[in-house]
Design brief:
Shape: globular
Strand order of the largest sheet: 1-2-3-4-6-5
CATH superfamily of the largest domain: Transferase(Phosphotransferase) domain 1
Number of strands: 40
CATH class of the largest domain: Mainly Alpha
Radius of gyration: 33 Å
Structural class: alpha+beta
CATH topology of the largest domain: Transferase(Phosphotransferase), domain 1
Number of helices: 11
Largest sheet: 6 strands, antiparallel
Strand content: 25-35%
Length: 690
Amino acid sequence: MQFKEGNIINNHYRLKKIIGHGGFSEVWLADDIIMDNEVALKVYAPGMGLDDDGLERLKNELKLVSDLYHGNILKPSYLDVYERSPYLVLPYCERGSAKKLISNISEEEVWHFLHDVASGLAYLHEQDSPIIHQDIKPDNILIDKRGRYLITDFGISTKSRSTLRKSMKKAESAMAPAYTPPERFESNNTPIKASDIWSLGATVYELLEGDAPFGDFGGLVQKGGEKIPKFSGGWSRELKMIVTLCLQKVTWDRPTAEQLVEWTKNRPTVAQLVDWSKNTEGLFERWTNGGGEGPPLKKKKRWRKYILMATGAVAVVLLVVFGIKVLIGKDILPPAPAPPTIIPSKWAFDAAGGVKSIIVKTNGSWDISPSPPGAWYSVRKTTEKSFEIVCERNTGTNRNVSIIVQSGPFIVPMDVEQEATPLPAKTTYIKTNPQKWIFVAAGGTKIITVETDGAEYVVTSKPPWCSILNQKDGQFEIVCEQNNGGERRYKIVVKSDSEEAFINVVQVAVLQDSPYLNVNPQKMNCEAAGFTLTQRITVSTNAPKYDVDVPENMKSWCSINIESATSFLVICKPNTGTERSGYINVRAGANELPVEVMQAKDPEREIRLNKYHHFDKYLGNFEIVQRKSDPLFGIIDKDGFERVNFIYIQASRPLKNGCFGLMNEQNKWDVYNPSLSKIASNIENLNNHQ
């Protein structure tokens, strides 16, 4: 199954949009329809799924990751499987990734970044079975609302990556080449801790300079002899030297993650860093004590002898190769690997579709990513130097895709686009998807897609315990309320001209012996003006009762009023100071859920109070005022906050129980309650409200 916007995953999460993707996974922003908040879903092998062995292996590894806890790693909160694709539920970091900081970061923030990421890596590396991240890069470092840097996308072994690659028929390597260290391009490229340090150095270099140190091909270029590029001005010598040490070609010449944490705390001088870098044997000891990161070092004199011997051996081999080349007139060494060239580099199909042959120039073997099942295009290799793209007719919207060609460590995308031709207007069929949906007892929301061949559609019947919302071209929402009784069923009818389609809706019965608690919303924003008995929180539980606790530090500005067994009201006083926030806790039986309350600041109170003509005409605690800039009237409270903004007021009259009436421009009465909520409109006579 292909994951799409609007899909409901396991009756729990509604997909909103893709916010990231890698070689083997997609990251979706999703709504938790039970808890009513936003989360991130990382889906592995989307659309393809894994076999039983692959599922078991990946689930076991992800369970180990879920047991980890550190302030600088993004801890998943839940693991499940949908359509044979495992997925992790992660906190949604609204501030995004470190990628947005490239060329837009201060030195002090770089030290903060280096400290946080090194701390997270040190924690991963010190596990009994050390965890090697294998893909440190700006995209995989997220920023939480407190400004901390969090490592994500870790814990997948090389074996599981191979399983995912085969399942998805992908050719991508585990790491992004720009952040891949030189040792990973060797034939024996087992992941090691020092590889994460090199990738961290490449990431910090890119934050400072705007580009990765060795371009798109990373350690492969350094392995070929390229030196670490120089830094531009503006950065301290200490910071530049630490990044340079992380980018050393030899693994044991790099610091450990623990060493980087210490440096970010103590800020060593350049002289101290130079002395540290000269202690080669000390470097080796630091790495081997952590699990063995390279061959043992001998004394310097013995190394000098071995280097001379190796140099002589290489010289002899080169002379032999050169002699054979002279005799037979051919090169016997294979050419150095190079990125493939795709001709043309991109292609645009018209709406009718068609076939296009693509040429691939490379000095090595190459492969191409296959099209997923049911895709609007297909690809196949036709010769050793070409492949073919077949594109079907497009009767929908414009669409595009990137086809991946890989040769050795190099990955080159080819962009393919297709324009659209609208469907002709017909009235011969209508189809809904899905045609059956099962709601949990707590209720929820399901998006139904409607396909016709051109005609409009209408929902002609719905269950009394559901609402139909947001009906528009191609889809509508079914919103199901909580079920406190037995199982219930209904057939929803969707009609287009004379054609009909059906959605069978089932809602399971509530489990009385299984206590649950749900509140909605779980996050609320209060304006600086505050509100009185107007912000309602609904509570769903099968417990006998629920309680709400307000922490001591919030009681000065926030209180609650339990109005019924299914709802309570939150009351915030006006805020004339700085922004403030906190959590109130809802408890029912053994369950507990927090509700976050946030209130904005109001720095312009005095300016606002000067905007009005004041009449000393009061209705309870509120004053009728006229705005100086126009003839409209409004109502403000004793702190000057606008409560009714802005209307025609011909007259006002107090009523019983703190209510009052305001005559509008049609010379009719609108009735407001003490909370300034309108409870009646266009009343001819107020006698019934006296």
